[in-house]
Amino acid sequence: MAHDMKHRLPRILAAVALAALLLVGALAALVWWGPVPISDKRMLLDFMLGRGIEPPSEETVVRRLAVPHGDGAGHDEFARSRLQPG
């Protein structure tokens, strides 16, 4: 029995490897040519492989997301008057 299993193991492993390869290929084909149109295939490939752009530095984030204090046109006073009762 053990001798018989030794001969079957390579076939079983080959079958499992082939099935996994076919599954990955089918999923890749579905994503590539599937029902959802993707205009930039290279971007999709980069995403799937984990490649991308470097995240912005902390200075860049602070600079881009900083909101200036008021704009000098009286909008701050209007907002305050809306929040006060009466």
Could you characterize what this model shows?
- By secondary structure, this protein is mainly α.
- It has one domain.
- The protein is 66% helix and 0% strand.
- It has helices spanning 2-33, 41-48, 58-65, 75-83.
- The mean pLDDT is 77.
User: N-to-C terminal Cα separation, in Å?
Assistant: 91 Å
H-E order: HHHH
Low-confidence stretches: none
Radius of gyration: 29 Å
Estimate percent helicity: 55-70%
Taken as a percent bin, the fraction of beta residues is: under 5%
* Overall pLDDT metric: 77
* Main pleated sheet: none
Set down the secondary structure blueprint.
Layout: H1 2-33, H2 41-48, H3 58-65, H4 75-83
Key descriptive features of the protein:
elongated; mainly alpha; 86 residues
What's this entry about, in short?
The protein is an all-alpha fold and 86 residues long. It has one domain. The protein has 4 helices and no strands.
